[in-house]
C-alpha cells in the first residue's frame, strides 16, 4: 500500500510517498481502507520536530496522522463488520499511522460514519471535535444559560466548541479576527470579540466557562472576567504546567486537557452530526500526493475550520 512516511523531522519535503506492507490486524482491531484524513496543528508541529516528535522518533517508519474516515475491509472485532463506513481518531496520543491507504485501528476508537456527511466531513470531525467534546462535556459541566467564552472560535477546535456550547444551551462568546465574524455568527455565536482590536475585559464579564486554544496570555486575560467558581480549560500545551497556579488566586478551576482516542465519545459526536447539531467546516481538500501543501495551509494558522486530504 501507499503511505506517506516522514524520513526526518523538518520541512514538508521530508514527507514522502512509499510502498509499504499493508498492516495486519489483531484481536479487537479492524482494517480500514482510508478515504479521507484530517490534518491538525499537532501533525505540523510533530513533523517539524516538536509536538509528539520525541514519542515517535524511534519508530521506523514514522507515519504521521491520527484522523481518518473510511471503510472496514477486515474485522477482528464484533463492533464493526466489513463494508461499514467508520471514522475516528486513531491511537492518540501515540503512533496513529493515518497517512496511509490502510490503517489498523482498535475498533473501540471508532464510530459508524453518519450517512448524511461525506468522508471528508467525517475526517474533519475527529481530533478537533473530540477535543472540544472532552473539554466541554467531559470537563465542563456547562449548564443552559451559562456564559461560555471560546478563544480562536473559528479554528478547528473552536468551530466545534461553538456548536457544542450552543447545543448545551449556553450563551456563547467567540474570539477571532474581524474577517471571521460572519462565519462565527452563522455558527451561532451570540457575541463576537475581535481579538486584534478589542480587549476582553472591556466587553465581557461574568463568564462561567472558557475554552482556550491560544496560550498563556489568553488565559491571563480570561481570568479577569471569569466568575469565581468558574472553569477555564486550556488545550494549549504552553499552559500545561501553569494554568492551575494561574487560576487559583481567582478561585477558578483551571485545567489543561489533552484529548484521547475514545469510541464512546466518537459515537456521541456521530449522533450530533447525524441530527445536524454539529456541522464540520471543511476549508480545503488536498489530494494524497499534496500532503505537503495541506501542512503548509495548516501552518498559516488562518484556516477557518479544517484541512482534509482525500486518499482516493
Strand proportion, as a percent range, falls in 25-35%
Number of helices: 11
Order of helices and strands: EEEHHEEEEHHEHEHEHEHEHEHEHE
* Unreliable spans: none
Oligomer: single chain
How much helical structure, as a percent, in the residues? 25-40%
* Terminus-to-terminus distance: 12 Å
Biggest beta sheet attributes: 7 strands, mixed
Shape: globular
Mean pLDDT: 97
Helix-and-strand structural type:
alpha/beta
User: How many extended strands?
Assistant: 15
Q: Whole-number radius of gyration?
A: 19 Å
Structural notes for this entry:
By secondary structure, the protein is an alpha/beta fold. Strand 1 (2-6) and strand 2 form a beta hairpin. The protein is globular and about 55 Å long. It has helices at 41-48, 53-56, 119-124, 127-138, 156-167, 181-187, 200-203, 216-223, 243-247, 263-274, 291-299; strands at residues 2-6, 15-19, 29-39, 67-75, 85-89, 102-106, 110-112, 147-150, 171-176, 191-194, 207-212, 226-234, 253-256, 282-287, 306-310.
Give the gist of this structure.
The chain is of the alpha/beta class. It has helices at 41-48, 53-56, 119-124, 127-138, 156-167, 181-187, 200-203, 216-223, 243-247, 263-274, 291-299; strands at 2-6, 15-19, 29-39, 67-75, 85-89, 102-106, 110-112, 147-150, 171-176, 191-194, 207-212, 226-234, 253-256, 282-287, 306-310. Strands 3, 4, 5, 6, 7, 14 and 15 form a 7-stranded mixed sheet that branches.
Amino acid at each position: 500500500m501507499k503511505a506517506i512516511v516522514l524520513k526526518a523531522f523538518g520541512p514538508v519535503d521530508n514527507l514522502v510517498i512509499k510502498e509499504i506492507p499493508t498492516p495486519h490486524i489483531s484481536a479487537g482491531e479492524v482494517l480500514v481502507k482510508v478515504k479521507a484524513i484530517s490534518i491538525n496543528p499537532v501533525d505540523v508541529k510533530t513533523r517539524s520536530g516538536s509536538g509528539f516528535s520525541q514519542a515517535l522518533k524511534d519508530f521506523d517508519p514514522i507515519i504521521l496522522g491520527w484522523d481518518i474516515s473510511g471503510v472496514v475491509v477486515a474485522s477482528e472485532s464484533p463492533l464493526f463488520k466489513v463494508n461499514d463506513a467508520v471514522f475516528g481518531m486513531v491511537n492518540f496520543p501515540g503512533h496513529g499511522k493515518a497517512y496511509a491507504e490502510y490503517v489498523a485501528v482498535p475498533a473501540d476508537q471508532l464510530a459508524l460514519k453518519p450517512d448524511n456527511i461525506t468522508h471528508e466531513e467525517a475526517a474533519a470531525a475527529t481530533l478537533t471535535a473530540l477535543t472540544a467534546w472532552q473539554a466541554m462535556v467531559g470537563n465542563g459541566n456547562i449548564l443552559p444559560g451559562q456564559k461560555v467564552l471560546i478563544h480562536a472560535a473559528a479554528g478547528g477546535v473552536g468551530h466545534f466548541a461553538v456548536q457544542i456550547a450552543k447545543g448545551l444551551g449556553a450563551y456563547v462568546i467567540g474570539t477571532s479576527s474581524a474577517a471571521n465574524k460572519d462565519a462565527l455568527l452563522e455558527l451561532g455565536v451570540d457575541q463576537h470579540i475581535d481579538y486584534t482590536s478589542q480587549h476582553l475585559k472591556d466587553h465581557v464579564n461574568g463568564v462561567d466557562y472558557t475554552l482556550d486554544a491560544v496560550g498563556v496570555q489568553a488565559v491571563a486575560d480570561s481570568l479577569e472576567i471569569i466568575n469565581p467558581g468558574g472553569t477555564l480549560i486550556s488545550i494549549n500545551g504552553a499552559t500545561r504546567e501553569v494554568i492551575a497556579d494561574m487560576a487559583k488566586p481567582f478561585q477558578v478551576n483551571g485545567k489543561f486537557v489533552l484529548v484521547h482516542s475514545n469510541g464512546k465519545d466518537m459515537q456521541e459526536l456521530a449522533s450530533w452530526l447525524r441530527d445536524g447539531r454539529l456541522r464540520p467546516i471543511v476549508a480545503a481538500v488536498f489530494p494524497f500526493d499534496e500532503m505537503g501543501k495541506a501542512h503548509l495551509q495548516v501552518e498559516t494558522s488562518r484556516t477557518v475550520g479544517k484541512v482534509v486530504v482525500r486518499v482516493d
